[in-house]
Amino acid sequence: MILLSPSILAADFACLGDYMRQADAAGTDLFHVDVMDGMFVPNISFGIPIMESVQKITHTPLDVHLMIVQPRRYIREFARAGASIITIHYEACEDLNAAAALIHECGCKAGLSIKPGTDTSVLEQYLDEYDMFLIMTVEPGFGGQKYMNKCTRKISDLRKMLDEHGLDTDIEVDGGITRENIGMVLEAGANVIVTGSAVFKGDIQDNVRYFKNYFAEYENK
Ligand code: DX5
Ligand code: ZN
User: Fold this and answer.
1) How far is the CA of 67 from the centre of ligand 2 (A)?
2) What is the pTM of this model?
């Protein structure tokens, strides 16, 4: 199943509730919540108080992307604040097995992400521990960047690795996804699609419907 996960980082925070209601009205599958600590990435976004507000205005599952150092410190709090999926970074956490176990203990799905410079092969030993793998297609830290073409190969390599292990695990892609490159990303094997600017800059409902229709047509091909 192909799912759309618009990143609220690209919304106007003064109107966040309205932006989210529009995406919900057009049938988004998830909301992507980018948490940045100014340490793991050179930017600070928002944290638990925003999550607590956001979870009150939507029933759509919250797909939380933790770009923070030592993410195990905060897993329980993000789960309590309404996360359905919690994704942490390979580069930011020492004990990835313990982190996956803690995310599951909190009742969430566990995701593991790699930055553009990290090789896909590092994920192989965690294939059984995580429910989703996130391939970053920009350097994490900022919305509105350009998709890095060299990352397409990493998506197809990971899909091949999962196939070889008989796994149908979700592959999420995040960074610079547009109407122009969505076909290529799906073709490479991704099925959870983060879109910040491509949904929240412009006509939100039209953008969500465009991607959802695209996915439906792709799946019926
Ligand atoms: C980057 C974030 C992304 C980003 C996506 O660090 O993880 O989720 O906000 O935004 P766009 O789609 O604008 O690249
Ligand atoms: Zn993200």
Assistant:
1) 8
2) 0.98
